[in-house]
Amino acid sequence: MPCRSPDRRFLSRFFPALAATALLVTSSAADDRVDRLPEEHRVWLEEEVVYIVTPTERDVFLDLQGFEEREHFIEAFWLRRDPIPATPENEFRTEHYERLDYATRFLGRDAPRPGWQTDRGRYWIILGPPRTREQFDGRNEIVSADLWIYQGDTTVGLPPRFNLLFFKKEDIGEYELYHPWADGPDALVRRGELLRTNQNLAVDVLEMVSMDLARASLVVDLTDPHADFLSATNTIAPALLTVRPSMSVDKNFIDILESPYRMVDMDEIEGYLRHGDRVSAEYSFRFVKSQSDFRVLVGPRNTPFIHYSLLLAPEDFTLERDEREPVFRTTVDVDLELRTAAGQLVAMQQNAPFIELTESQHLAAGDSPFAYRDNLPVIPGDYEVSVILRNRATQQYTVATAPIHVPGTGAGAVGLSDLILAYRRDQAQDLASVMPHGTFQFGATILEPSIGGVFTASDTAHVAVQPLNAKPAHRVRFRILPDGAASSAVPIAEAVRPAGRASDPPIEAFPLMGVAAGRYEVIAELLDEEDAVIASRSAPLTVSPRSAVARPVFIVRRSFSAHTPGLLGLALGEQFMAHGRIREATIALREAAANPDLPMARWKLASALLFTRDADEALDLLLPLEAEYTNQIDVAEGVGFAYYIRGECVEALPRLEHAMTLRAPDPSLLNALGDCHEQTGDADRARELFERSLELDPGQQGVRARLSASGAPR
Length: 714
Known about the structure:
Layout: H1 8-14, H2 16-26, H3 32-35, H4 39-48, H5 55-63, H6 67-80, H7 91-106, H8 119-127, E1 132-136, E2 145-151, E3 161-167, E4 176-177, H9 199-209, H10 211-216, H11 238-241, H12 249-262, H13 267-275, E5 291-298, E6 304-312, E7 320-322, E8 327-340, E9 345-351, E10 354-358, H14 359-365, E11 370-377, E12 381-391, E13 396-406, E14 415-416, E15 420-427, H15 429-434, E16 441-442, E17 445-449, E18 454-456, E19 460-464, E20 467-468, E21 475-482, E22 493-498, E23 507-511, E24 518-527, E25 533-544, E26 554-557, H16 567-578, H17 582-593, H18 599-611, H19 615-626, H20 633-645, H21 649-662, H22 667-679, H23 683-696, H24 701-709
Parallel strand pairs: 11-26, 18-25
Antiparallel strand pairs: 1-2, 2-3, 3-4, 5-6, 6-11, 7-8, 8-9, 8-10, 8-12, 12-13, 14-20, 15-17, 15-19, 16-17, 19-23, 21-22, 21-24, 24-25
């Protein structure tokens, strides 16, 4: 609802910024999206939070389609503003509705509209009760006025001390916000028009009533030099003799109106706009920031792996306490997607680890961050990787994304992996025997990566890099240089080690004691027998001036089970299929299908064989699975297509029709079904399926010609 200013035409001519701010609210009435809201949501947006909702939040809310989604938005709206999330009460929400109630009940008594719509109501809702308040009623010298003085919160852009003055024009009507430029001191004095030619006299009158009132007639910000009305001898200060209001008042009003926007962290809304379509409604408006690190390392059989670490601040990762016993629990759902630059999905990884901490473990974690770590094999290429982590206990989520270049690792490729900068190095012999290729792990050695490469002077930086296809005589040289220094500069630290193997890479420890705070670059170089540089990698390192950097005590570490027979071949085979590299996919999937405990490998291999129309082998793989995996789309559709390729439509039809019920059909399934129905004499059903196929892909000229020949409309 609009905040009425004393003279809109004056403001629009001389104070366009303030006029624009006022019009921002009035324009809401013209938005037809408001009319489509159910009444309770319209009231919430247009009456309850109209002065504190940010423009971006308002637009997002109006674009939401469902009632449930808007309810989740409203819940998250208040959570974003909760000053003490650990308490059951939302203190901000409680205070806001108390302000709204006061404004409605007490500040509209002299107005023809509800109190929350008045000027005083608006500022009471935004700012709350003033530190001091002085009302001037029934005086002979001045019109009725209400002066509010505030101690301002500078963190949200408010002046340290400021006042707001409301008055009744000519002592008629409701209280309106006084503007020193638009109204002038004479507007506060009875018969003030007689003083318009001498504003000094108007200020004199106000000063006799109240020095605070005289000050408020010229300034809003009480720390403004114009507020110093009196000299040491209690005479009018020279600045006052000009009776010119402060030039900052327009900015002051804008800062006050926009102060509710500055107290809100908009990361959740920005997260919704970027990623909201990737999470369910209850998570949509609960985005939290995270730090992340993605590294391409070399795993078994020289296979590239993406290793990643996500770090959440302690306030953004909460577990739920079980009231029946002293334990804290949650489940996190972690989804990784790997896409090409064109957006094609190449690989997915889904995990849902259950987390349970005893009370002592929970206390030990304290205020430390939470870390999640995992890895995934990937074939060479350029990708965009994204990870969504959702916490079921709080229904919060975070997203980490990064561009990834995965180089070739064949026998002819000699080089180095990405660098790892770790704040700790641990040994775990027991783990090495079970899983030798874990996340950020080389045999028995586990590295704890420092996200962003941030250390303190009391830390030791453990730097690791994997050689790829290095010769026995090759070595790795590590150097730490000041950021921006030439590669020939004298390093602040240097070490040379034998290159070794990717499974047992060189790891150098650099104590940072005595290293000045600042930015540095870590460089690893692969040297040949004559010390020529074959390959190099670098990573930034920052030595923080702080005495400590928050490190995770609570770490969930998952790893791809590359030691499970066939699992690596299955993952790589699926990626080759996504790239259309059928021959390589078939080789990898044959290896995977050799493990009888991986039935998925058999139906994935059958899919690859069907691309080359090898229906007989595909049926050999799929028919033994059909009874157990009746509703597995790859099995039902695969058997149907295999029979269709063999020209056995009687066998193909029931499988393909069943596949239609398992997933929305694509043109290839519709066309195969249409052809089979036509061959078995059901022309009407065939026509229906061909028409549906054309709706999905109108460019199928062969299907269009077939329909035309059958007499069906094009």
